Each structure stands twice: as structure tokens, then as C-alpha cells.
Amino acid sequence: MEGGIHKAESTEFRDLLYLTSKQPFILRLAFSAGIGGLLFGYDTGVISGALLYIRDDFSEVEKSTVLQETIVSMAVAGAIVGAGAGGWMNDRFGRRPSILIADLLFLAGSMVMCFAPSPAVIIAGRVLVGLGVGMASMTSPLYISEASPARIRGALVSTNGLLITAGQFLSYLINLAFTKVTGTWRWMLGVAGVPALVQFVLMLALPESPRWLYRKDRKAEAEEVMRRIYPPEEVDAEIEALRVSVEADMAQERSLGGAGGTLRKALGSAVVRRGLTAGVLCQVAQQLVGINTVMYYSPTIVQLAGFASNSTALALSLVTSGLNAAGSVVSMFFVDKAGRRRLMLLSLAGIVACLAMLSGVFFAVDTHSPDVSIAGTAALSPGANGTCPEYALAAAAGGEEWTCTQCLRAPSGCGFCADAADKLLPGACLAASDAARRACRAGGAAGRREWYARGCPSSFGWLALVALGAYIVSYSPGMGSVPWLINSEVYPLRFRGVCGGIAAVANWGSNLLVTQTFLSMTQELGTAGTFMLFCGVSAGLFILLFLVVPETKGLQFEEVEQMLGSKDYKPWKKFNPKA
């Protein structure tokens, strides 16, 4: 864990297999705590599919982009509060009780959403779930990190990232399983309570973090936990290293003016300021590259690319989620070998390229959308009320011909009914309503038509899926896992709870900004313009991360603190603790 006899400079994944085979309790502990990551991932993925069916059940949600964004983002708002409270609770009551409380909140929120009679109650349930997810998002990797041998700490904390992506993948499978069941979205959201209940039961049988116990002067309990984690020939040295590390932390805290890891005291330390700057920037960058536009709105993005069916959009989104899970496995193999900093920067470079590609593809989709047919529109809307109002005015005035893109961007809310023979031929522009959707899909002599309400029919849709998949492959191994690992390593123990809480709040605050504005941005800037904006932001973040985030690969906690406190500290230079 700290100090000790291990040399962690060349840690590889085989060390994880070797140590856990000798001490299986380590894997049990990491997996049980890591279910918090599964909860995090499941909530991220499940709402993306549930939202498609919530829109169908509640007309007010269908008509309001802001309401759709609110249903998604209120879990994020709850997570901000949960992460902030979690930082205090971690220091005051311990890591294990914080995880148990998070489970209860998540379970309660899942039940509220499952039986919600209105969008307002769904939003209330999302807030409860968010509180639990926010607490778990910072506590789970912290708990795993503090109970892990140093040479496999990176791989074990990465199991939390793996379970996040596994939760996302599981949520898409469950979404697909319930597409034909009465109550679709209620089942999707209600099933989320199962992993929370499982983790609650498992955590009851696990101990508290040994570092937290030792700091609270519960030394006998801490040593007992350490003996369950380390092989007999190593445990005495590790216990001594833990004692030295914690006592040094407490001595420095006393020199700062008293007990308690307050923010004011924390910011008075150069070590904490540098660590907090790196940790917060990593968390903010993780969100501002736009990942949760993909994870929360993946089926919607697929529809924007020209795939109209809800079930088709969910099935195609499953591919991106699967790639995300695969990327997390890659991270577990390489994060301790390649290094945190290098993996993160390579990941971000790939993200910039993929976002530029996505922007180009959606620009092509917009500029090559099918025309609107006057005759086709009239055939499907014999009454004046059936035609899109803005299109009716333009046609009556003899203005320029409309395209599907213009139809879908009409302020009153309109949909495009594609030609039955060829979806790329001119179609009808109708006022969006259940009647119009049914009339379109009813077809006629020419066959069944497809109704488009989000994006237009396009021959470029498959390119959008390729770019989306490449984006996930670039994101997951680096930006998906490394920020959480960095934040578990760069803070001194006495300030780890409060600093972790600040970083998690920064993560969720950035997440809230992205999720609450994405759909509105696609309306104002267009989908191409929105992804180009994310591309520019990601390029700027690459420069900032290069300048601010140090390499922590293979370093013990006290060596990380030594690096951050050195007078010639340069994040882009490799640190030698023996120098």
C-alpha cells in the first residue's frame, strides 16, 4: 500500500493475477466496492434508452428539449450534492458507511422512478439516484485504492472504471430486453435497484479502509485488515509503512494548526494545491470532451445520424457501449505499464480527431438531406392542420424549396415522413403529432414509410457510427479510467476526503453543464457545430493536461507527495524519488 517492500515501477497486470491468487480477499474487496462503479455506469446508460420511451408516454416531454435535458441532468445535479457530502462523510464516518448510504439512496430513487406517474416524479427519483451515484463515484475508487497493494493499485482502481463501463453495457442490454414489454422505461429504471441491493449486502461483510482506521486510532482493526490483504511474509513491513505514513500525515496536520482536513488548511499546502489542480482538471476534462453526450444521448445521436427506429437506435448504441467496456479492459492492462499521463494524453489526441470526424459527418448529413415534396405532404395531410405550419407558409409564399433538415428545425415542432420506395427521395413535412406519426407509418399502396423526428434519412449514417465507435475506443482506455486513478493518488491522506469531494463535484458540475445543454446546442448550432465545439474544447484541454498533470505510475503515496512538494516540480518531467 504505502512504502513497504514492493517496487512498483514496472507493475504489470500479471501482478494482479498473482497477488489475488495468493490473497483472494483483495479481489473480493475490490469487486464489492467497485459495484459503485457499476451503479454509476448503469445510470449513465439506462436513461439514454428510457428517454426514448418517456418521450412517447408523455407529450410534454416530447415537445420540450429542456424537459428532456432536465430528466437526464437532474441525476447529475443530485450527484454534485452527493459528491460534496461524500467527501465530508468519508472523513467523518469512513469509506464503508458512505458506500452503504449511497446504496440506499440509489435503491430508493430507482423505486420512485419505476412507479412515477408524471415527469416531475421521474425527476425527483433522478435526484435521489444522483445523490447515491455522486457519493459512490468518489468513495469506491478511494476505498479500493487505500486497501490495495501499491504495485497493483492502478489495475485494481481500474476495475472500478471497468465496472462503470460494464454497467453502461448492461443497461443497454436491459433497455433492449424491455423494448417490447408493457411499461418499457419503468422496468429499465426500476431494475437499477438490483445492483445497489447486491452491493449493500456485500459491503456489510467487508471491513473499513485500513488507512482510515489507523488514522482514527483503531490500530488493531487496521492491522487485522492488513493481514487479510497482504501475504504473511509481507504484512509486517506494510503495517510499519502504514504507521509511518499516517503519523507523518498527522504531524504535518498539527503543524498546519490543528486537526481536521479543512479546505483552508489544504490550500495552504503547495502539495495539495498542485495535486488538487491536477485532480480537478482531470475530472473536468473527462466531462468536457463530451463523453456524456454520447453515453446519456447515444440513441438520440444515432437517430440524428438518420436511424429513426427506437429499437434500432438502442441496438446500434449497444456497439458503442461494448467498445467502452473493451477499452476499460485495455486500461487495466496498460495503465501501470504505459503510465497514467501518457495514456491520458494519447487518449485525448484520439478524441480530438474523432470529434472532428463526427462534425464533418453530421455536416454532410445536414447538407445532403432529402427535399420536402409538396405533393407528398398534401397527400398525407389533406387538412391544413396536418402540414408543418412554417412549411405551409413558405410553400404558400412560393419561397425556396425546403429540405428535411429545415423541416425538423421548424420552431413549432415538425417531423419528416420519408418516401416509401427510397428514404432519400423527397418526403412529407408534417406537424409533429401522434396522428401524423401513425399516418406516416400506416403506409399505403407504396408501402410503409419511416417517421423522422430527430435526424434526417442519410447515406452517411454508417460513417457517424464509425466515428462514434472510434471516439469511444479513444476515450475509454485513457480519459475514461485515468482521471479517477489520478484522483486516488495525488492527495495526502489528511486531505484526501475533502480534495476528493472537490474533484468529484467538479466532475459532476462539468457533467451537468454538458448534459443540460447538449440537445439545446444541437438545435442552436446544429449537430455538426456542436461536435466541432467539443473538438475545440478538447484540443485546449490537451494543452492544459500536458502542462499540469504529473506521472504517478509506480510511486507510493508518500513518493507522490514528495514529488508534488519538490522545489523543481515540473509535471512533464519524470520524478525520481531516489534523487
TrEMBL record:
Annotated InterPro entries: MFS_dom, MFS_sugar_transport-like, MFS_trans_sf, Myo-inositol_Transporter, Sugar/inositol_transpt, Sugar_transporter_CS
Gene3D superfamilies: MFS general substrate transporter like domains (1.20.1250.20)
Pfam families with a match to the protein in the record: Sugar_tr (PF00083)
Keywords: Membrane, Transmembrane, Transmembrane helix, Transport
Subcellular location field: Membrane
SUPFAM superfamilies: MFS general substrate transporter
Its membrane topology: Multi-pass membrane protein
Main location class: membrane
Superkingdom, taxonomy of origin: Eukaryota
Residue ranges occupied by any Major facilitator superfamily (MFS) profile domain in the UniProt entry: 29-553
CC per GO annotation: membrane
Transmembrane segments: 29-54, 66-88, 100-118, 124-144, 156-178, 184-206, 343-365, 460-486, 498-519, 531-549
Entry similarity comment: Belongs to the major facilitator superfamily. Sugar transporter (TC 2.A.1.1) family.
PANTHER family: MAJOR FACILITATOR SUPERFAMILY (MFS) PROFILE DOMAIN-CONTAINING PROTEIN, PROTON MYO-INOSITOL COTRANSPORTER
Protein name: Major facilitator superfamily (MFS) profile domain-containing protein
Species annotation: Urochloa decumbens
UniProt lineage: Eukaryota, Viridiplantae, Streptophyta, Embryophyta, Tracheophyta
